[in-house]
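Dear support,

Our group has been running a series of protein-ligand predictions, and this particular one with S-adenosyl-L-homocysteine is the one our PI (initials K.S.) wants archived with full inputs and outputs. We had some confusion internally about which version of the output was final, so please treat the block below as the authoritative record. The input we submitted was:
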Amino acid sequence: MKESLILKGLRNIMLDRLKERGISDVNVLNAMAKVPRHIFISKGFEVQAYEDKPFSIAGGQTISQPFTVAIQTELLQLQKFDRVLEIGTGSGYQAVILAEMGANVYTIERLKELYLGAQRIFRQLGYSINSCWGDGYEGKEIYAPFKKILITAAIPQIPQRLLDQLDTGGRLVAPVGDGNTQIMPIIDKISGNDYVTSHCNIPFKFVPMLRDKKSI
Ligand code: SAH
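Confirmed final output from the archive:
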């Protein structure tokens, strides 16, 4: 797909800002340099797509700001071919970043409209991503275990059901807290029921993770 030099230029500026804010993982930066973020945002807002701000998408949801996508992805310590479960597909941007980095991506979205929209973009951009319409609180048992689980909506606490779907040696990253701000625990599964938790000391503000899927 051809795109203008202006959009490439805006993307480079976005990359410079991410580096200034401390993102250093070359694989994350390369993926974000390649994926056309404006495709995930309504037409006419191409410039805003590359600002370091969240942006409204359908269903009253938001695409996370580039810095949040970068830091969550960096925290995952993704390896090529890792089986990753993302909860909260939203626009599909985060899922495509993971796929661009060589992960085997499964993603769940509660709102049908967003699930269908993201599927269209995955096809348009040529990414093979397993997307599901469902309730992320359930995870995706049939495809478990996952090497990485990434939650991109604010969750009050991590359900055991999701930890059970994490592979030994795997890692879960999630914004945990109420509707106002969340912290970002990084949970490593050492063995069957043995976890080590560390923290990223930045407060975040995600939309809430709600119960049950919804057909809008
Ligand atoms: N990762 C997205 C942004 C996520 S916004 C992106 O790259 O654009 C959070 C998303 O989580 C919203 O789309 C919201 O509808 C979805 N969501 C909220 N509760 C959910 C649940 N229980 N299961 C699955 N998705 C959920």
